[in-house]
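Quarterly update from the structural biology core.
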Amino acid sequence: MNARDQGSGIRAQVRSARGRVGRARQPLGRIGLLAGIGCLLVMAGCRQDMQNEPKMIPQRGSEFFPDHRGARPQVLDTVARGQLHEDTYFYTGTVPGPNGQREEPDLMPFPVTMTVLKRGQERFNVYCTPCHSRVGNGLGEIVQRGYKPAGNFHDQVRLSQPVSHYFYVTTHGYGAMPDYSAQLTPADRWAVAAYIRALQLSENATLQDVPSGTQVENLKDIAREENLPESFAEPWALPSTAIQALPPPTGQGTPAMAPPNAAYPKISIPVTKTAPTNTKPAANTK
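Predicted structure, tokenized:
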């Protein structure tokens, strides 16, 4: 057999092999196509079942209930878990009085421990010191920048107020002070009230109030050890940048519609800054 005949034979064998492979692949391709279509049908059927499953969607109608509302009304006289607020004094700071009005007793709703006072001090330093200062005399940092002086916890008016009053004011605000109910939980508001009372007691404390065996350190010595200026231990005075807020016209109400209190002490203006005067000439009534 020559080379030409041998090559023709090889080509014939190759064509025959290709034909057999093509015939073998054809049924496999059809089976794969049918299997894919079947899988798609199965998947579509499962999704349809899940899409139309019997469930309630909020704010959507329903044929299951007679009123055709999917959202069911709440059962009467039920309270969500954690929102019962059964201890009304803990959450309001007031109790019913004999005349039908709410009263503020001088009472903490839970025992005051050192942990409570430290928590109150931490929250007080964060939220209260910008206005009331760290010692609670109402001469915070923003007062030095022209803001109205805040309440002084050491004057006779605040000393006579019950501890629950500070909780109530922190919850609802008073005058130019906004409420801090969003920033402080009820427990933290009570802790701040307890720390305010501790500040008041420390301001007027004497050596007789110190338990026996307790070492008393002088504030000036502590300031010297901490490398603080000598003025740190001196009484804080009203800065010259503070302003005296004039009383608003009675016909326009007061800030936050809080009732005015004539017993509040008048804030003295330093000699370096004079109070504004009304220079407008009086109208001629003739």
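Residues 93 and 164 are 5 Å apart (CA to CA).
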